[in-house]
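Encode chain A's predicted structure.
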Amino acid sequence: MEGCVLIPLKRLEASKSRLSKYLSVEERVELTKCMLRDVLNVCLDSGFSRVLLITQGEIDFIYDNKIEVINNDKELNVALLEAISSIKGRFNSYLILPADIPLIEKSDLEQMKKLMESFDILISPSFDSGTNALFMKRGKEIELEYGEGKKSFLLHLENALNKGLNVVVFSNERIGMDIDDLARLRYLAHLNINKESVLYVKRLYEKNRNIWLGRNT
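Encoded structure for chain A:
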């Protein structure tokens, strides 16, 4: 299946704002870059024909010729739909992933690809009922429901079922864990895996251990 991955990305300086109490702007920008590279590496290693990075700002650290950068500062759902519209006819399927799920592995994408041989839509929820993976076949697209605070998983599931599409829910711990709070940062810091974001968070943890553990000194 000729598939394309779409990864939306906020302006780097505005990324991971929920972590501003614990990380400086520079640290949050670097963490975002590390996580994005971890996600991109897995996507490129999984045989996808193209990765579209949909950004609200300039990106100057992506060099792989399979990655196409699209600048679009419109509302997220609109930007994604415009990106999909621009590539219709070139790919048989579209996988939307966030940039902040660094624990994703090649095997996860392979499982999703296998499931998509039998289903029109695949939805993988985040731990807080968002949508951390949405896989759609061409011609079977659904209305997108991304947005801060929205329970988009249930909305996407409802949209797929209302269209009479064959949908599967793919629950996966690695995909479900986006990194947006201190507890998940601490979790990354204690992993022993060779991910760029994990290694970076380990360094941050050593630097900020007392703050991250709630100590005064």
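The mean pLDDT is 92.
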